Structures are given as structure tokens and as C-alpha cells.
């Protein structure tokens, strides 16, 4: 039995509320159970210097966690004067994932920055950031299209991410913190709306895993990503 009482292949409740920030070109608040992430998209008219005169755009991300998003207070990284390695890894992951769903030539030489701020953490914050970040990005692209700034839609497909792992010897979908902290195997799966893989991160936290078990987790991830894409579509209307 999972601590939450969920079935092995059952997602936490998914809620995506759009337009939650007045000034951002795209924004949403995504809730996956007790994990809540505020995502916003900012359009910048210039691409990074390394893309000058290439005709290509860029999508990048920044990620942060509020001090009391967790059980005990985490010191603000700004106060410490530097980002942790974990933060840098996660924001690079979010950027890579979202760029996989964008035709950068159609975007043109401009940059969209996705900010993901974790308000409350209960496992799966990077997955929620990617899933919600895509919604914010979609809304920003809609503004560019409506204004005639770009003529063709740069969004190739949906992008969603979900965690899976082996908890108490069983493959489970969408780990919360209680499961994540005790899982023998932990994985994050990023997929497109068509079920194509963008990235898979898997590691043996307490016990090694077999190829068959990896396949079971991938099956769960495909089903979970489909649920997330459905939630994205419902939020966008």
C-alpha cells in the first residue's frame, strides 16, 4: 500500500490554473498533489549572443524554491551568494526539455525565459516545473502569434514530465516525498504529447533494478504523461 493510499499507477490530482500573473507573457500555477509550482514565461527580443545571426531562438529556464516550501526552512540562494548544484541541474533540465518541443527557427532570434518557483514541495518539483513551464511557454507563443510577431507556430508538441520509481518492491507512478525518500529506484521521464522520449533519468537509490523493471516504469510514465498532457489541454481550453 502506498502511503497516500493511491493505486500503483495512479497520479496525484492535477490542477493547472492559467493567467495567474498580471505582467508575464504566459503564466500558470500547477498543482500535482501537494507540490505547487508557479511558472511564468518572459519574452525577450534578443537571442543569446552565441545565436547572433543564426536565425534561431532560445528557450531557457530558471528554478527556485521558496524557503518554506519544505518542512524546514531552506536559506535563500541569493543570501548564500550562489546557486546549489541541484538548482543548476534542474534549471538546465527544464530548459533542455522545453526546447525539445520548439522549432527554434520559427521562433526567430528571440529568447523566452521560463521561471519556475516552487511554492510547496512534496516530491516531483522538476517534473511539475517542466509540465507547467510548457503551459506558460504555450501562452507566450500564443501572444507572439496573435501580435503577428511570428507567422508560424514554433510549438512542435506538448512536453510533460513525471516521476516513477520502485517503492516497497513495487513500480509506482508519480512519487510524493514519502515515496521518493524511501524508493529503491527513482526515475524522471520527460515525454512529448505523441509519446516520444525527450529524457530519462534513472538511478538505483537503494537497490539495483532490472531491464524488465525499467520497462514497467516506462509503461507507467507513458500513461502518466498522457494524463498530464490532457490536463495541459484542459487548462488551455
From TrEMBL:
Residues 10-140, 159-223 form the Exoribonuclease phosphorolytic domain. Pfam families: RNase_PH (PF01138), RNase_PH_C (PF03725). Coiled coil: none annotated. GO terms for biological process: rRNA 3'-end processing; rRNA catabolic process; tRNA processing. Keywords: Nucleotidyltransferase, RNA-binding, rRNA processing, Transferase, tRNA processing, tRNA-binding. GO terms for molecular function: 3'-5'-RNA exonuclease activity; tRNA binding; tRNA nucleotidyltransferase activity. It is an enzyme of class 2 (transferase). Phosphate binds at residues 86, 124-126. It catalyses: tRNA(n+1) + phosphate = tRNA(n) + a ribonucleoside 5'-diphosphate. Its EC number is 2.7.7.56. It comes from the Bacteria. SUPFAM superfamilies: Ribonuclease PH domain 2-like, Ribosomal protein S5 domain 2-like. NCBIfam families: RNasePH. PANTHER family: EXOSOME COMPLEX COMPONENT, EXOSOME COMPLEX COMPONENT RRP41. Belongs to the RNase PH family. Homohexameric ring arranged as a trimer of dimers. Phosphorolytic 3'-5' exoribonuclease that plays an important role in tRNA 3'-end maturation. Removes nucleotide residues following the 3'-CCA terminus of tRNAs; can also add nucleotides to the ends of RNA molecules by using nucleoside diphosphates as substrates, but this may not be physiologically important. Probably plays a role in initiation of 16S rRNA degradation (leading to ribosome degradation) during starvation. This is Ribonuclease PH. It comes from Rhodobacter ferrooxidans. The gene is rph.
Amino acid at each position: 500500500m502506498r502511503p497516500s493510499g493511491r493505486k500503483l499507477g495512479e497520479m496525484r490530482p492535477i490542477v493547472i490554473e492559467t493567467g495567474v500573473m498580471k505582467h508575464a507573457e504566459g503564466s500558470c500555477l500547477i498543482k500535482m498533489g501537494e507540490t505547487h509550482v508557479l511558472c511564468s514565461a518572459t519574452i525577450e527580443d534578443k537571442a543569446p549572443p552565441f545565436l547572433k545571426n543564426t536565425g534561431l531562438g532560445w528557450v531557457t529556464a530558471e528554478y527556485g524554491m521558496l524557503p518554506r516550501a519544505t518542512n524546514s526552512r531552506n536559506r535563500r540562494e541569493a543570501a548564500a551568494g550562489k546557486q546549489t548544484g541541484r538548482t543548476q541541474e534542474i534549471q538546465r533540465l527544464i530548459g533542455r526539455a522545453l526546447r525539445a518541443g520548439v522549432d527554434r527557427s520559427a521562433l526567430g532570434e528571440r529568447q523566452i525565459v521560463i521561471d519556475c518557483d516552487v511554492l510547496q514541495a512534496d516530491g516531483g518539483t522538476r517534473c511539475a516545473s517542466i509540465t507547467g513551464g510548457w503551459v506558460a511557454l504555450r501562452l507566450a507563443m500564443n501572444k507572439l502569434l496573435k501580435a503577428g510577431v511570428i507567422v508560424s507556430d514554433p510549438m512542435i508538441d506538448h512536453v510533460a514530465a513525471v516521476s516513477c520509481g520502485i517503492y516497497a518492491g513495487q513500480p509506482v507512478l508519480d512519487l510524493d516525498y514519502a515515496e521518493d525518500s524511501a524508493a529503491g529506484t527513482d526515475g524522471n521521464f520527460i515525454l512529448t504529447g505523441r509519446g516520444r522520449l525527450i529524457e530519462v533519468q534513472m538511478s538505483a537509490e537503494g537497490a539495483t533494478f532490472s531491464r524488465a523493471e525499467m520497462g514497467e516504469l516506462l509503461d507507467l510514465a507513458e500513461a502518466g504523461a498522457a494524463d498530464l498532457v490532457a490536463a495541459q489541454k484542459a487548462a488551455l481550453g
